[in-house]
Amino acid sequence: MNAQTEFSTFAGPAGALEVAIDRPSGEPRGTAVIAHPHPLHGGTLTNKVVQTLARACVLDGWTAVRFNFRGVGRSEGVYDEGRGELDDLLAVIDGLAADGPLCLAGFSFGAFVTSHAAAQRQATRDLQRLVLVGTAASRFEVAPVAAELHGRTLVVHGEQDDTVPLSAVMDWARPQTLPVLVVPGGGHFFHGQLPLLRELVLRHLRA
């Protein structure tokens, strides 16, 4: 992401997890943990949408923690259909973002995993912001967002997403009356629209 990115490994539940940390220039307001897309379809912590989410968090003063799920990059273990990946995310949250305010963000498969992490930690942590981008609602059972988190949650989806149809995300959001911010003409990976995505996330973080 930049020359100051710190790369390391962290002891996860299935072995070492590869981690990348970016820090803001001043005292951090908290820690943002960001989850990447599907491990079997090229998803890694260097995904451009994931990097865009991390940039927005750093610009707003958060320490941004990206990591590779088990079996990706230098992370040990094998793909576990979301179950083990949730354990990975919770381990990173509890180990590298154990204190202070918390922001959780995820893209695609990562948004699905993040939804379940938020459901498990929102009662015990100061979860200030939740950001779900390109949420994989057509392929996985995404957890509902607790009503008390709705005002702190941003759901962003591309109008022309051909990986996860917008209709699938609307079907997930509708019973919760959870707003979805739709990017006109946007695809799953927001090609040509990453600066806009960064601004939308930054606006949400600063709200």
N- to C-terminal separation? 25 Å
Q: Beta-strand percentage?
A: 15-25%
Radius of gyration of CA atoms, rounded to a whole number: 15 Å
How is the CATH topology named?
Answer: Rossmann fold
Residue-averaged pLDDT, rounded?
Answer: 97
Spell out the key features of this protein:
alpha/beta; eight-stranded mixed β-sheet; Rossmann fold; globular; 8 strands; 207 residues
Task: Report what the structure shows.
It is a single chain. The chain is α/β, with parallel strands linked by helices and 207 residues long. It has a single domain (6-206), classed as Rossmann fold, CATH 3.40.50. The chain is 29% helix and 24% strand. It is built from five helices and eight strands. It has helices at 48-59, 83-96, 109-121, 166-173, 194-206; strands at 6-12, 15-22, 30-35, 62-67, 102-107, 127-133, 153-158, 181-183. Strands 1-2-4-3-5-6-7-8 form an eight-stranded mixed β-sheet, sandwiched between helices. Helix 1 (48-59) runs parallel beside helix 5 (194-206) and helix 2 (83-96) crosses helix 3. The longest helix is centred in the middle third of the chain and has 14 residues, at 83-96. The chain starts with 5 loop residues before the first strand and ends with a helix. The model has no long low-confidence stretch (mean pLDDT 97).
